[in-house]
Design a protein that fits this description.
The protein is mainly alpha-helical. The chain has one domain. Helix content is 80%, strand content 0%. The chain is elongated and about 55 Å long.
């Protein structure tokens, strides 16, 4: 079970690391999300978002190999994924690339729930 728990964190960590490439440039952000990033304020916000994704993703990957951080990593990952899904639902009318992000985040949420459930079961088995 420890390998399954680690794998779920690692996969969701990689999912969070992939959009970090957007921190490089507005052009990368445009390709990632299918939106025009032609305004400096929007560029700043989206590039900073990419950096934050790198931090969350890096932490999830780190926690995959450090069991003492796994519980908090599952919480952080779920907060990240669920907040995006909630905002996407509230806003609606998204382009095809952002709809693809929704599908990936739904997959990430399932992985996080499965991994967190496995973590709870494994910790109860030890106590």
């Amino acid at each position: 079970m420890p390998y399954f728990i680690a794998a779920t964190l690692f996969i969701v960590g990689v999912i969070h690391l992939l959009p970090a490439i957007g921190a490089i440039s507005a052009a990368r952000l445009s390709r990632l999300y299918g939106v025009a990033v032609d305004e400096p304020n929007l560029e700043l916000l989206l590039r900073h978002r990419a950096v934050l994704f790198a931090l969350v993703g890096g932490f999830l990957v780190f926690a995959a190999f450090e069991p003492r951080y796994q519980a908090v990593a599952f919480v952080a990952g779920m907060l990240s994924v669920v907040s995006f899904l909630w905002l996407a639902l509230a806003i609606g009318k998204l382009n095809a690339r952002l709809k693809r992000v929704i599908v990936v985040d739904l997959l990430a949420a399932v992985l996080l729930l499965a991994g967190a459930g496995a973590l709870v079961v494994s910790r109860r088995a030890w106590h």
